[in-house]
């Protein structure tokens, strides 16, 4: 007699349960997917003690009649497919017919279902895979499945369950992904009576992400959409200021099913390249739609992985779509997600007080009574003040690069001064005015920048000094500078970063700047890293790289294995502009390098490039673009100014202008933010000027 025998049905179900029912989250997954396939619009998941004590799923789907309720617990009984051809066009979440018998084999299960609220429903009790009682029960349309005492008959599996918090985390994670996949379904998840997730089911993915990740995160999400001939995708991805420590926040949703796709996740991360710090990951929910024949979901026991046709085309398209979305949607980082409140306009009546020096009711000072001349001078002073107040200030005009102001008001002021003040006071005033004009002469030939105009005194204060090429021979004889104001205005529309005017530095590391939008903090090292990174990338991409001969050639020596590998890849180094050749034995000599290598770090850059070549695999030629990028990042870091380096005002201004001309002025090549913006409202809120 042979030793091979058929297993009985109960034992086969328990073995299958080992693959399908890995933990309580697996039970929730299978039962909720069945509810989704039944066209439910409301699904409630109630869990107790991490799912080991009780899992109850309630939906308002199609429901089942008595016959289907009994047949559903037979192995490989399903309504999803009928022939082999259906396996290649799967549109439902479940199709194998293994979930219900596998769950029932390791638990005490109770099922109530009805196809109509006006008809009597069916109630089943199953314990350890053995069918118990079947009875009629009043029930609304839909299905309710209650799983109790999970793994009660498999103590080994129960022994290795994690903590309740861990199991609840797995359940919550998968329900979150199902909610992202089906925003038109209202989900309710509770644990021990506490609500963990509740979605509205209004069909808006952004509302689901707000319910899962919070409203503040939802405000920092960017919509993404795109399509090719075979694929169509849409969803949301987070800005660079919202990051997480692992990839678990990347949700790939294919034809209404959550799948783990490492290739698509890598494509998304390539889209974020140089925009995120090392070890940080974005929050992404990407819904991909395609013909079912282009994807195979029957490659994993839990259907959590899938294989795509034309996968390279899909990944490349998604990568470009992520890059384009981030390019259009990114902005300067703001430390607080605050929005200015609507201002309430309230009319405040300011009481007016009479501040005249002398009043009819006030007795005259003995000093004034004794000095008629002093009384006369004070009366004239009062008249002059009234004349000055009636002068209408006129804004300065710009002609030929110089500032011109109308002299009509000045004549009134000067005449008022001459009439009122004694001769010695007039002479002193004119002398002070002359000194002031002489001190301003070097600046009269240049058109002031917007910052100078913003910080300049008001027109009434300007009216003390007249600046005009007609009255000032020095200004008239000097060639005017080009109209910087117009050029700046043109650049404002081209660059995603506004014009920022430097004010100072903090610890020689951060530049403080301002404009009409508020205050900015700029990391000077990160800013110049971005500038140099794009410069070196352009240089490395040139077909012909010009090199300069080294005064003293540099030799490097490696092990025999490294020398053998390097000798085969000298052409790769030469494509970087290095003139390198074997120098006998295990030694190589470098005779020339590109002239734009960071000054003072040339030898270090050369050795780093050689190390890059040694670390590449056999397909080194295919990694040229990646190697160029690594080299550009390394060189930009070494060439950039470091912390504790104090800059002059001109250097800071030049650095900010160069940053505005870069293609991605928000992050350095390592993904760290460059600029942080504090709006006027942010500052007022921090100082409690607004509540």
From TrEMBL:
GO terms for cellular component: mismatch repair complex. Gene3D superfamilies: 3.30.230.10, Histidine kinase-like ATPase, C-terminal domain, MutL, C-terminal domain, dimerisation subdomain, MutL, C-terminal domain, regulatory subdomain. The keyword Hydrolase applies. Residues 502-647 form the MutL C-terminal dimerisation domain. Transmembrane segments: none annotated. Pfam families: DNA_mis_repair, HATPase_c_3, MutL_C. One of its GO terms (biological process) is mismatch repair. This is DNA mismatch repair protein MutL. It comes from Brevibacillus fortis. The lineage of its organism: Bacteria, Bacillati, Bacillota, Bacilli, Bacillales.
């Amino acid at each position: 007699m042979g030793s091979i025998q058929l297993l009985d049905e109960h034992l086969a179900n328990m073995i299958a349960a080992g693959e399908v029912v890995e933990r309580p989250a697996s039970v929730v997954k299978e039962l909720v997917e069945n509810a989704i396939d039944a066209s439910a619009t409301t699904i409630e998941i109630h869990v107790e003690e991490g799912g080991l004590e009780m899992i109850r799923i309630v939906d308002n789907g199609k429901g089942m009649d008595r016959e289907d309720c009994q047949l559903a617990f037979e192995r490989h009984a399903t309504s999803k497919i009928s022939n082999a051809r259906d396996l290649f066009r799967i549109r439902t979440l479940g199709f194998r017919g293994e979930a219900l018998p596998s769950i029932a084999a390791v638990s005490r299960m109770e099922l109530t279902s009805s196809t109509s609220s006006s008809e009597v429903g069916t109630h089943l009790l199953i314990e350890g895979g053995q069918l118990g009682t079947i009875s009629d029960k009043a029930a609304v349309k839909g299905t309710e499945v209650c799983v109790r005492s999970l793994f009660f008959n498999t103590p080994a599996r129960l022994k290795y369950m994690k903590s309740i918090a861990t199991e609840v985390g797995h359940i919550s994670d998968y329900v979150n992904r199902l909610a992202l996949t089906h925003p038109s379904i209202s989900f309710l998840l509770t644990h021990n009576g506490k609500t963990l997730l509740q979605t509205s089911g209004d069909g808006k993915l952004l509302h689901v992400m707000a319910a899962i990740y919070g409203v503040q995160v939802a405000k920092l999400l960017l919509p993404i959409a795109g399509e090719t001939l075979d694929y169509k995708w849409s969803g949301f991805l987070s800005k660079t200021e919202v990051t997480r420590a692992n990839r678990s926040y990347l949700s790939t949703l294919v034809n209404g099913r959550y799948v783990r796709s490492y290739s698509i996740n890598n494509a998304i991360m390539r889209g974020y390249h140089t925009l995120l710090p090392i070890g940080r990951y974005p929050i992404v929910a990407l819904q991909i739609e395609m013909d079912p024949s282009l994807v195979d979901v029957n490659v994993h026991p839990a259907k959590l992985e899938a294989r795509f046709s034309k996968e390279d085309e899909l990944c490349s398209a998604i990568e470009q779509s992520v890059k384009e979305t981030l390019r259009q949607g990114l902005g300067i980082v703001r430390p607080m997600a605050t929005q200015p409140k609507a201002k309430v306009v309230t009319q405040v009546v300011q009481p007016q007080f009479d501040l005249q020096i002398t009043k009819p009711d006030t007795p005259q000072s003995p000093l004034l009574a004794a000095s008629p001349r002093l009384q006369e001078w004070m009366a004239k002073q009062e008249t002059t003040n009234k004349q000055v107040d009636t002068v209408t200030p006129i804004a300065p005009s710009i002609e030929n690069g110089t500032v011109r102001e109308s002299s009509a008001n000045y004549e009134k002021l000067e005449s008022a001064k001459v009439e009122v003040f004694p001769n010695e006071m007039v002479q002193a005033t004119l002398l002070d005015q002359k000194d002031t004009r002489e001190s301003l002469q070097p600046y009269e030939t240049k058109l002031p920048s917007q910052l100078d105009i913003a910080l300049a005194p008001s027109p009434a204060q300007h009216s003390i000094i007249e600046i005009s090429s007609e009255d000032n021979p020095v200004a008239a004889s000097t060639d005017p500078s080009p109209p910087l104001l117009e050029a700046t205005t043109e650049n404002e529309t081209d660059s995603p970063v506004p014009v920022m005017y430097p004010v100072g530095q903090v610890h020689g590391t951060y530049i403080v700047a301002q404009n009409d939008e508020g205050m900015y903090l700029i990391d000077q090292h990160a800013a110049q890293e971005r500038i140099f990174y794009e410069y070196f990338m352009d240089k490395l991409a040139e077909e012909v790289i010009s090199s300069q001969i080294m005064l003293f050639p540099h030799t490097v020596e490696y092990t025999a294995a490294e020398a053998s590998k390097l000798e085969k890849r000298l052409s790769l180094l030469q494509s970087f502009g290095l003139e390198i050749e074997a120098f006998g034995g295990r030694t190589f000599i470098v005779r020339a390098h590109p002239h734009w290598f960071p000054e003072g770090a040339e030898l270090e850059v050369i050795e780093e490039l050689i190390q890059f070549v040694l670390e590449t695999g056999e397909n080194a030629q295919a990694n040229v673009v990646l190697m160029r990028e690594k080299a550009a990042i390394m060189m930009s870091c070494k060439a950039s100014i470091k912390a504790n380096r104090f800059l002059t005002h001109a250097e800071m201004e030049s650095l900010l202008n160069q940053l505005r001309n870069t293609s991605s002025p928000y992050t350095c090549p390592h993904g760290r933010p460059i600029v942080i913006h504090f709006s006027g409202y942010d500052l007022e809120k921090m100082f409690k000027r607004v509540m």
